[in-house]
Amino acid sequence: EGSKSFTKEICDAARIPTAKWERFDAIAPALEFVRRRGAPIVIKADGLAAGKGVVVAQSVAEAEDAIRAMMEDETLGAAGRSVVIEECLTGDEVSLFAFCAGETAVLIGAAQDHKRIGEGDTGPNTGGMGAVSPPAGFDRATQDAALDLLVRPMLAEMVRRGTPFRGVIFAGLMLTEDGPKLIEYNVRLGDPEAQALLIRLQSDLLPALASVADGTLDAADIRFSDEHSVSIVLAARGYPGRPAAGGVIEDIEAAAALPGVAVFHAGTRRDDAGRLVAA
Ligand code: AMP
Ligand code: GLY
Questions:
Q1: Residue 39 CB less than 6 A away from ligand 1
Q2: 128 lines ligand 2 (CB under 6 A)
Q3: Which residues form the ATP-grasp domain (predicted)?
Q4: Among 23, 173, 209, 271, which residue has the fewest nearby CB atoms (within 10 Å)?
Q5: Ligand 1 atom with the shortest distance to the CA of 172
């Protein structure tokens, strides 16, 4: 998550399918590269940019603007001093999750989040308005194959480098015509993906996490149900710009009492009268 070019180097070293890429530390060769390659093309700030570091440019002019903004105007600060320029992939985007320790990976499942605020996938991006698990057409066998192709070789490469990874891997991938390709690795469960994934966990979460931390994941008892799940975010009016605080949330107990439903809170509180409100 901290460096796009580090991810790409690991992919190349481990022969993991990913978009063709090149890294630039100076603006002139970056501009020259996009003029030569043409659009569509993807411009990425190398460092962390709070979700604003990727521009999927539909024209060369848009790509040039993105490069100038990142490298000349430094709109993303230090994160944009280096850029990664990538081939533009097309296909469905899905996310794959696994508990990992050394070379061991245990599949958690797959999910697809929906980032835009509006009905029908419209409006500005959010942290995620909901997630479906598993995504349509990404069944267990396909997930296992993607784990072998896109995650296990990365774990082996990290071991080879003397920096074994322990934690959760959240692999973002694109299902292209040439098979699944890696977009990025995150080292956490997503939000709202975690809610859709973990509700299917039948064994205890804490011993699973402990086994990741102490390297005994091989022997851990981790079981998930095959049921499908969906998480839906209810946000205060104004989200993601300036969400209004104080709105009263009613009937949450009735929702939580429905079979198969769990309610998770984030940014809620009780007011002086004991009512649940958005905060
Ligand atoms: P990232 O921050 O790496 O997850 O990228 C943000 C989003 O940009 C991804 O979720 C994709 O929708 C899109 N994206 C990233 N890389 C590519 C690529 N090589 N081709 C097409 N879309 C991409
Ligand atoms: N929902 C996307 C993320 O947690 O990164």
A1: no
A2: yes
A3: 8-214
A4: 271
A5: 4
Nearest ligand to the C-alpha of residue 131?
Answer: 2
Model confidence at 53, in pLDDT bands (50, 70, 90)? Answer: confident
The single residue listed with the structure tokens 């390709």 is 181
Ligand 2 within 6 A of CB of 86: no
- 20-87 CATH, one of 3.30.390.10, 3.30.1490.20, 3.40.630.30, 3.30.70.1110: 3.30.1490.20
pLDDT higher than 80, residue 50: no
Phi, psi of 224 (to 5 degrees): -115, 145
Q: Please state the rounded mean pLDDT for residues 134-156.
A: 96
Question: The pTM is what?
Answer: 0.92
Give me the residue spans of the domains in the chain: 20-87, 92-230, 234-279
Mean pLDDT of the chain: 94
Overall fold of domain 92-230: D-amino Acid Aminotransferase; Chain A, domain 1 (3.30.470)
Compute the CA torsion angle 210, 211, 214, 217 (nearest 10 deg): -160
